[in-house]
Structures are given as structure tokens and as C-alpha cells.
Amino acid sequence: MSVPASPGPHEPHFPLPPAPRPRRRKWPWVVGVLVVLPALAAGIVLATAFGKTTASPCLDKSQQVPCVGPGQTWISADGVGRPRDAAAPATTSPSIPALAAPATTEPALPEPTPKDYSVELAIQSKQCFGSAGCNVVVEPKLNFLGASTLLWECDITYSISGDTSGELIETAYAQGGTAYRVDRTSMSTKTSKVVPQATVTAVSCRKP
Fold this sequence. Notes:
Residues 1-22, 79-110 are annotated as: Disordered. Keywords: Membrane, Transmembrane, Transmembrane helix. The chain crosses the membrane at residues 29-51. By secondary structure, the protein is of the alpha+beta class. The protein has one helix spanning 27-54, and strands at residues 67-68, 74-75, 81-82, 117-128, 134-144, 153-163, 166-174, 180-181, 185-189, 197-206. The strands form three sheets. The chain has a four-stranded antiparallel beta sheet with strand order 8-7-6-10, with no helix packed on it. The protein is rod-shaped. The model has no long low-confidence stretch (mean pLDDT 75).
């Protein structure tokens, strides 16, 4: 029968050393710096631009020079304020002068004269008595040969030949334009072969 071996002296207990911590890598931090710096620079540029916009010297802050500044000064392209009269020509539209209406006065027309009229006699009735002659009724037909008579009212005197008693004097009235007021004339001729004739001898005109 075997005898169990007696236990030996106890071995001392040493705790296990802690596991070494992994070393942090430095490159992620460097990457972060590289990302943040451009963003920060862009923000500074935007802030500067925004500051320039809000601090615009123009009267209207939404505009850029050149423009009208406070006190009606002129801000030139270099950003320097100058009196308004030293600026470039005003940008307002030039006033357009009103067109004068053409003159409507009618040209002066000379007063009509006898040569501006002609007159013919139209026989309205004729009654003959053999050797005793004829009784004739005539009516004048006037024609104007000159310029317009719209500005005139005229008395037109004419003479009629062919009557047994001699020359007959009658008057017609021009009322402007070609409107006439005339009277018929009764006359006696020696024979049926006599043809009465008329001639304008005088014209007296006036403005209506």
C-alpha cells in the first residue's frame, strides 16, 4: 500500500501584470485638423463678405458701389464718397421736350376780284311776239375761278346785255364757298335771235 506524498510547502501567489494599453494613433487627430481648418477659413471669408455687404456705404445697403450714399453723396467705384455734383452724369432719364402743335392758322387769301368769277345766263322762259320781239326770263349761273372763298362773303355785280332798254345791272351774293343767292331777271329782246349775255363788273367782299 502506497503512502500519499505529503504536501510540499505552498508556492507564493503573484498577481498577473495588467495587459498593456494599446497606443493611441495620432493620425486621426491630424485628419480632423485638416478638415476643420478649411471650414473655418470658409466661414471667415463668408463672414467678411457678409460684413462688407451689411456695411455697404450705399444708401441702399443691398447695392454695391458705385451708388448713392448717405447725405445724397456719390460713392464712386473706389468706395470714396464725393459730392453728388462731382459724380458721373445722373442716371435719371432726360426730360423729353413737349412737341409744339403745328400752327392751324389758315394762310391769308387775297380778296376776290371780278376776274375770279364768271357768269352765264340760263334762259328759264321765252315768249316771242313776231316782229314785236320776245319776253325772256334769265337766271345767272356763277362760277368761281380763283382761290377758296370760304373766308369771304361777297356781293357780285354783273351786267346783262340784249334788253331793248339797254344794259341791265344785277347783283348776286356769295355766301362762302360755292353757295350763291341769285335773282332771276325779266327782259325784252327785239327779236328771237338776240342771245342775252352777262359779265361780272364788280365784287365787294367782307369777312363773315
